[in-house]
Specification:
homodimer; alpha/beta; 434 Repressor (Amino-terminal Domain); Rossmann fold; 3 domains; six-stranded parallel β-sheet; six-stranded mixed β-sheet; 14 helices; elongated; DNA-binding
Chain lengths: 333, 333
Amino acid sequence: MENLKERVTIYEVAKASGVSLATVSRVINHQGNVTEATREKVQAVIQRLGYKPSGLAQALATNKSTTIGVVIPKANYVYIASVLNGIAEVAKEKNFLISLFLTSHSKQDALSAVEKVITSHVDGAIIFDDELEEEDISKITSYYVPTIVINNRVEGERCGCIVFGYEGNLRKILTEKLNKDKDATPVFLHVHDCGRLLARTEKAFISVCKGLNRNYSVLNVDDSSSRTYEDFVEYFKKHKTGYFVAYRDSIAAAIANAATDSGLRIPEDVEVLSLIGTKYANITRPTLSSFNINMQDVGKRSVYMLMDLMKNELEKKTYRIESVYKKRGSTRE
Amino acid sequence: MENLKERVTIYEVAKASGVSLATVSRVINHQGNVTEATREKVQAVIQRLGYKPSGLAQALATNKSTTIGVVIPKANYVYIASVLNGIAEVAKEKNFLISLFLTSHSKQDALSAVEKVITSHVDGAIIFDDELEEEDISKITSYYVPTIVINNRVEGERCGCIVFGYEGNLRKILTEKLNKDKDATPVFLHVHDCGRLLARTEKAFISVCKGLNRNYSVLNVDDSSSRTYEDFVEYFKKHKTGYFVAYRDSIAAAIANAATDSGLRIPEDVEVLSLIGTKYANITRPTLSSFNINMQDVGKRSVYMLMDLMKNELEKKTYRIESVYKKRGSTRE
DNA sequence: TTGTAAGCGTTATCAG
DNA sequence: CTGATAACGCTTACAA
């Protein structure tokens, strides 16, 4: 690349305005110790030459990149996009850039993202990836990169986390349901390799059922909603009823649609509960009862926590955010 | 930050392994001209010390950041997330990092993103933001940053673009509809400040109606689907029929739901057409007739084009991608 | 094959 | 208030 040759440097600005590098640097950093006269002179030259400081060089010189590394799975789920939006919004407000690392649901890939986070010299990192365990995170923090982990309880010297409260709510709702409806045999929809949140809620689901001495079943479903829809059209040829707990809105909707399209009524015959609710829970018909966490807030919060952590001022290293249960049309009272 | 003090540098690796900086550099860059013996020796030290090269310093020295800047609006629409996923996937494959700049639907904000793209010294940029016009883009390219623009026809020395083909398809479908159904007065749903794609399709819509000498109307709706839903519940108290063209699935779904919940039948009484279809077009009931473009492919393609552009080998500077019309349940034959 | 030394574009510490 | 000059961590001719 011949970018270099073309790029105007601070040196040229200095020469053109007849001052030293140091002075130009002071001007662009809005520091004091510069006469109004020289400041204006330099500013004029900067405008004329179209000079833009190199973030790279600045970062190297100050040892601050004002960048945060964000590691998230590449799935285009709405809730992940929301987290990212929250992060970006606060990052911008705080004048930080974002280096984005999207992982592809493999441990290998997540680890390589970690490597990149380290070499890319970010000032801090936000990790929202279920492949990464505590030891992987500590790899990052051992390089003195303050890190906030979302959806995994990890604490440490330079590390804080945000954990989601879905299980408690699920236990509560499920218990109420089972106590009210003595015939119901609930079905948990297991999606292969869908991370620790699913695993935890599945565990909670099973523990409630066992605790109440009730039958239950766990069904494997595909992560694609269209495939799940087809599978359940088949399923509803044999089964005419069910209480389903699904991971995401689109899975829940697929089941609800399969039921409806099979002539079953929701929620009279079939009930569906969605764990991670999004705005689509309101758009589908029937609307989906679901547990909601404002994912944009999660993103925002993670940056706030990171900023505190970077100043070594993070008091509460673990921030727990509870989901809110919203009953909608897909379940009975 | 005391990162600096702690970070292992190439210099320390050199000293610890008794070779020069240059040799270490050769080792980490997998260059030849190093004896197997010294290579191993150095590698061992690198492992022992946990040395990771600083991407910053490398970028500065080589004048290559191997980073692409991505500017997209912060809306958490599914299709934007898909574009981003496509970009990220190919970027990773090509060993490029991503600097993400999310804009907030204001010109000011978009311009500041442009500034940041320039100072952040990326090797190339992908811009998908309707606030930015040709002159703003040229600001970037004038700094020798090759740029691919999505959804805006911009060409130039270091610039290529991807444009969406929605209008042609819309004209076709709308014309057919109007010719078949002589009574229909189509309604276009205008969302304030929703970018040039909406503006272009609105123009196409109007031109078709005028061309066929037919009545039509343009209705302002809110960008939030829940508000739109409420507005249309009101609307359907007076109107019992309509042929609606909406910008996105969630808007279209809101109208379809309002109609259904008002006791109207779709598509017998009310028809709805969605311009930008996503997977949710299949999940709602009725399913939504819509125009589809694989946004992940758009993202991927943009990176491929950018890579070519960076090598000055981009042949077709404008890549047009046509939408595919998919008739579903929300419109009649 | 290896080492020396001069960059890369900034900032920051001193003197002046 | 301003200017030299040495960092920052790495690459890369050029020499050896």
